[in-house]
Amino acid sequence: MNVLNIIINWLNAAVLAGAPLLLATSGEILTEKSGNLNLGVEGQMYMGAIAGLAGAWFAEQWFGVGGMIPLLAAVLFAFIMGCISGLIYAVLTVTLRANQNVTGLTLAIFGTGFGKFFGEVLGHKAHGYVAVGAETKAVFGNISVGKLAELPVVGTLFFKYNWMVYFALIIAFVMGWFLNRTRKGLSLRAVGESPGTADSAGINVTRYKYIATVVGGGLCGLGGMYMAMVNQKGIWVTECVSGYGWLAIVLVIFSTWSPLRAIYSSIIFGGLTVMYMRVPIPGLPRAIYMMFPFIATIIVLIITSIRQSKEHAQPASTGLNYYREER
Amino acid sequence: MRDSKPPSVEHVVQMRHIYKSFGTVQALSDVHFELRRGEILSLLGENGSGKTTLMNTLAGIYFPDAGEIIVNGNPVAICKPKDAFDLKIGMVHQHFKLVDVFSATENIVLGLPGGRTINRRALSKHVQEIAEQYGFEIDPDKKIYDMSVSEKQTVEIIKALYRGADILILDEPTAVLTPQETDKLFDIMRAMKKNNKSIILITHKLNEVLAVSDRVTVLRKGEYIDTVITKDATIQSLTDMMVGRPVSLAIDRPAAEEIKPILSIEALTALNPDGARALDDVTFKAYGGEILGVAGISGSGQRELCEAIAGLYPVIGGAILYRNEVNGQEVDENLVGLNPNEIVRKGVALAFVPEDRLGMGLVPSLDMVDNIMLKSYRKNKGIFVDRKSPRQIAERLVEELMIVTPDVFTPVRKLSGGNVQKVLVGREIDAAPHLLMVAYPVRGLDINSSHTIYHLLNQQKMKGVAVIFVGEDLDVLMEISDRLLVMSDGRVTGIVDPRVTSKQDIGLLMLGQSRHQEKGADAV
Amino acid sequence: MTKSAINEHTSPAEQLALTVEPPSCPIPKEPLIRMTKRGSISTAQKVFVYVVSFLSALLVGAFMLLAIGKNPLLAYRDMVVGSFGSSIYLGETIRLAIPLLIAGVAVGFAFKMKFWNIGAEGQILAGGIFCSYLVIHSINNGNYWGKVPLHLVMIILAMAGGALFGFLPAYFKTKWGTNETLFTLMLNYIAIQYVIYLQSLRSWQHPQSTFPKILDFAGPTDNRIMLPRLFGVHIGWVFALAIAITAYFYLTKTKHGYEIAVVGDSLNTARYAGMNTRWIQIRTLLISGAICGFAGYLQVAGANHTLTETTAGGIGFTAITVAWLSKLNPFIMIPISVFIAMLQKGSLFIQMTMGIPASAAELLTGLILFFMLGSEFFIQYRLVFRGTHRAPVRELKEEAGV
What we know:
The complex is a heterotrimer.
Chain A: H1 2-33, H2 41-63, H3 68-95, H4 100-125, H5 134-139, H6 154-158, H7 163-181, H8 183-193, H9 195-200, H10 205-231, H11 244-254, H12 259-278, H13 286-289, H14 292-306
Helix pairs in contact in A: 1-7, 1-10, 1-11, 1-12, 2-3, 2-4, 2-10, 2-11, 3-4, 3-10, 7-8, 7-12, 8-10, 11-12, 11-14
Chain B: E1 11-22, E2 25-36, E3 40-44, H1 51-58, E4 66-71, E5 74-76, H2 81-86, E6 89-92, H3 104-109, H4 120-134, H5 149-162, E7 167-171, H6 179-194, E8 198-203, H7 206-212, E9 215-220, E10 223-229, H8 235-243, E11 260-271, E12 277-288, E13 291-295, H9 302-309, E14 317-326, E15 329-334, H10 340-345, E16 350-353, H11 357-361, H12 368-372, H13 388-400, H14 417-430, E17 435-439, H15 447-462, E18 466-470, H16 474-480, E19 483-488, E20 491-496, H17 503-510, H18 519-522
Parallel strand pairs in B: 3-8, 3-9, 6-7, 7-8, 13-18, 13-19, 16-17, 17-18
Antiparallel strand pairs in B: 1-2, 1-4, 4-5, 9-10, 11-12, 11-14, 14-15, 19-20
Chain C: H1 12-19, E1 33-37, H2 43-67, H3 72-84, H4 87-112, H5 120-141, H6 147-176, H7 180-199, E2 229-230, E3 233-234, H8 236-253, H9 255-265, H10 267-272, H11 277-304, H12 315-325, H13 330-354, H14 360-380, E4 381-385, H15 395-400
Antiparallel strand pairs in C: 1-4, 2-3
């Protein structure tokens, strides 16, 4: 029974830890489907994290209430900040045709600096450290879905999460539907596979790249906000994103550019990141145990690179900028 | 020459005073163009004459620097491809604009308005109907990456028709087709003409111009030359207009004094990355003092064959035997399993001009000197590179082959196509090979440069070099080759004597209708 | 249409003005702005574009400082003063620049081959870990070597450690095309975790300490592990300069450098030329990793005299900036690394004097690189605005040699 409990609690924690990964992975899938390989997710999540926390904190100060209003402010600020980060990337790579790899890496450096810088500034403002009130903390806490949550096993596995977990799942499903079933989704995929083809078919390549990258950035921002508001419970911690942005890029590869497959892969990786807390292995030093997700990532990278497939591959133009009059 | 007739309803397209430049290259300069309703018009010109550029401005790919475009009597500005097909102009590009991982239907409906979601079944049915209307055969649900070149072309044409194109531009559509497939395409074009559609055929092949078109517009070096009625034109008159001076189109086929065996390929087999046979039991011999032409639809294994011989493509069976001289004794050296460096070390004098010049033969962002030493930089001792002798070679080649370049320290990607090819061929020939393989050596070159290359190949042949010439223009191959090897689907379907074989027969071989190998031809 | 006005004598531009009248039914218009490729650009224009972008980056940074209520001019002044104002400050700045320069050279090697190595961080740490093993071993066994052999073996170990961390991603990248960016990144995290693990080991801590921290190496080794100083800074800067200069000649004059250039530009051409592309990539990453490992040794022996999880402290990432801003030219990396170090040292200074968070350095570095990346566009392309048709000049043709 004890073992079962450990596993159930572990799965529950895996879903909780996987949700921000799922948001960021979905965002990066959207971005890569337009042919933009944005390596700046880590920075984008930092920007979303600080914007979300700042939004919630300022809303509390201004309106004097906790709860829903700070929550909405956090969502809005984080999403907009994420969009801005995507916009920076899009302007540089789509309009100014800068190297995608370097632009992404710069965004990672810049966004991390941005988060830390304004995190500290906010800390000064709050005279010490930033923390949201209990009420706001509560709306980001787990909700129990009525009687369902009391069911043994199933309750813990499906009905005891915060709202953002369900939100992330909905985003992934909607994106899967969008990419595979809609005309706009088809057009977006064409842009990522072969911008020249899409262009000659009358698709506005620039617009698609911009919108996908900006919205994708917004989702990454929300993923970062999750890290600050849920994982750190609304307290600013300098290392709050701690590599989740990079994991999201790996997960895009692992889930072979499918938002639906991103659901289980983010849960698997969520599980790996919390495993050291939930599944004790006697005799294994904690620091070594904490390497697991990174080692697993390397193994995933190697395995996915060994088995290649035409259908489940990176969009063909990823990493390359498009200029119609190139010759 | 500069006709400025008033706009007439008879003309569906009029283009006037069109200018377009790319960096310092003036691609189009004061060009005129007119297309009438229900005609097939050939747009004729050498490579680099601006045919494709002109049509790209009509299709919305390029925006002209200056000039006027009138469609159906109205002045228009075509900024993007969407504007073009709003004007019912459709273009089938030479490099197909298709998404590989999509099905035919998905490619055809791509970018069109319609419901928010896609009903794949209904759309496929509609595509099928249109295909049947014009007599095309197509599987709407087949993925592009599973298709042959001519199937892809069909998808492209249906795509244009599906969008209601009344003006269809076909850019060198026959370059990748067999003679039989070409005839079929011409039939379809005539059928479309009967349907009152106007067709522009971009080409540099004169016999096609004469076979199918009503009028011919000729461009030369980005300038408009003239438009003539096809009936009144001859091959020679068109050539003179195209080149700007009387030229002889004949390609020499001098006979070498001595013919000696150099290369013998036996039952060579190789797999492509998907596990299918890229080369299937390929057997032939190449002799010093002759040019062995290799014909076939593109993708029939020509590239793999050349790369396998050069040690760049893995082989799973068979032998590549090279006649080498070791200590005065003649031995047949098997090159299978050796990499290019090991092949050089064995003293094999093999030169290879690959199809993708800037992607495989040369390093685009390095200068001519660094490109010349690509294969020889290891020769000197020590850890430093010696740029002195390659520099001398480079300067000599610039002079001998009349390569147009500011200096030998200019990155080769900045040179024009013909000059890039001269650098590559020059380097390979300078290594004094016994076996010279050239793949599509005149692709993208003007007539003058092409003839320079043919001349160089004949020179090598007369020196006793075994030349293997992979080409796409069947007429050229039949003129220059001593023997012609035909490939289809990775197999050798025939080795024929081009002096006595008809083009139609070679076309059948290209389609894979193998006939019994004629021993007589193989033995020269 | 006033066609009659056109004759052979009107210039093309004039003809244009005459013929292109507003269309009677304005279907789509010419785009407002479009771009065309430039033929060439003069050095003066280039410098102008770079200077403008650099100033723009500072301007945006100034707005950010204004937004948090600080005076940007004072901040920028203090940054310069705080990094070059005295010989002590200058020494500190140089000390920060040393690993940046070395790591910049190292990642530059990899970037030149389009091998996106962002694992300098891990490679530096690996170097630090490997050479620290020797130091700890010596301390725990009371086995004190002479200064020279100790340092020599430390260097060898550090370079081996860095090379190992460079080798792994290169091996898999060349075997199966495994994504090297993420691979090297994960190695960073693994190296950091490993240092944290070492900190928890009793044998690596100070005997009297219970805090998870690796002891200071200076005391127990009688300062043997400390590097000598030259002009007030540990002699790492001499090594760094030597590495940058050697790297420059390695890349431009040797066969290896030539091979790197060919592989970086076109892998297929390299194969065609008979190069062993796999070995060239692995070899270069071994060198790149070893150089980073050496930087790790300098951090341990020269700068910190101990090993912490922040021994690399973002150097690996900043090195990417250094390499890219210098266009991968090791010579140019020398001033650029000093400049970036100035930003870092200056940020620490303004944190003290003006209460501005020190992460301003990362923010500014990111901004400058953003603007420099964007500025390349204006060097490659020219903008054409609606209505300002460039007259199609015939001289162009002669210039192009058509």
